[in-house]
Amino acid sequence: MWRASVLTIFPDFFPGPLGASLAGKALAAGAWSLDVVDIRTFATDKHRTVDDTPAGGGPGMVMKADVLARAIDATATDKRPRLMLTPRGMPLTQARVERLAAGSGVVLVCGRFEGIDERVIAGRRLEEVSIGDYVLSGGEIAAMVLIDACVRLRPGVMGAAASGVEESFTAGLLEYPHYTRPQLWEGRPIPEVLLSGDHGKIAAWRRSEAERLTRERRPDLWAAFLARSRGRPRTE
Ligand code: ADE
User: Fold this and answer.
1) Please, which residues bridge with residue 152 across strands?
2) What digits encode the pLDDT tens for the residues 144-167?
3) For ligand 1, is residue 5 a contact (CB within 6 Å)?
4) Phi and psi of 104, rounded to 5°?
5) Residues ≥6 apart with Cβ < 8 Å to 49
6) Would you give the end-to-end CA distance of the chain in angstroms?
7) How far apart are CA 209 and CA 62, in angstroms?
8) Going by CA atoms, what residue is nearest to atom 5 of ligand 1?
9) Is 84 in the pocket of ligand 1 (CB under 6 A)?
């Protein structure tokens, strides 16, 4: 079974949205498991202190290496990758999600405060991962994002919606536009070609729309897509 272990000082955040919808059904059905570890239970003083003032001064607090290391040592007793969610990490990509989903699970450390003592990151080989170039108030929501992205790829979780067929058709491109009835809504018609019944034409239209949206919105993805497909015959 694919196992997610989350180390956090806010265990009440979980399962949160991961307990609902498809991920939640799969969790209840035993298709994956979630264990949430309260870092605070590994503090040893009577106030259960997990943070302290930064060496060198400055604002905020830093999570203590010793407390977090005890939490990690009690949890990461197997070979799962150990990731720490932080805006200074390597960007999370769908390729990385696919590799993580294909493994046995993840151990996720959620940062809070100004940061985590650098020595525990090195000493416990935590790989730093970011979900985007913006700053959240902690790693918990980022951990949920990562878990959701992995779980939906596990066999039997999503059904047809994530069945590789459509995703490989437009691999590396943004999604084409979708429509459903009514045929005319507030003066806006469904594009004629989608009502034509001509599956070849429909596939070609969707492909060109996916390419147009990618070119317009994500020049970075478009350049990568062109680089990959250069010299290769197009497979539709
Ligand atoms: N914690 C705070 N901001 C984050 C981000 N953008 N990605 C991952 N973890 C975070």
Assistant:
1) none
2) 999 999 999 999 898 766 555 556
3) no
4) -90, -5
5) 43, 64, 67
6) 34
7) 48
8) 87
9) no
Q: What is the pLDDT of residues 3-34, one digit of tens each?
A: 999 999 999 999 999 999 999 999 999 999 99
**Distance between Cα 143 and ligand 1 center (Å):** 9
Name residue, tokens 């180390």: 7
**How many angstroms is it from 92 CA to the middle of ligand 1?**
10
Given a contact cutoff of 8 angstroms between Cβ atoms, the answer to whether 184 and 152 are in contact is no
Give the pLDDT band of residue 85 (cuts 50, 70, 90).
very high
3-state secondary structure the chain: CEEEEEEECCHHHCCHHHHCHHHHHHHHCCCEEEEEEEHHHHCCCCCCCCEECCCCCCCCCEECHHHHHHHHHHHCCCCCCEEEEEEEEEECCHHHHHHHHHCCEEEEEECCCCEECHHHHHHCCCEEEECCCCCCCCCHHHHHHHHHHHHCCCCCCCHHHHCHHHHHHCCCCCCCCCCCCCCEECCEECCHHHHCCCHHHHHHHHHHHHHHHHHHHCHHHHHHHHHHHCCCCCCC
Tracing tokens 């979630």 back to the chain, one arrives at 34
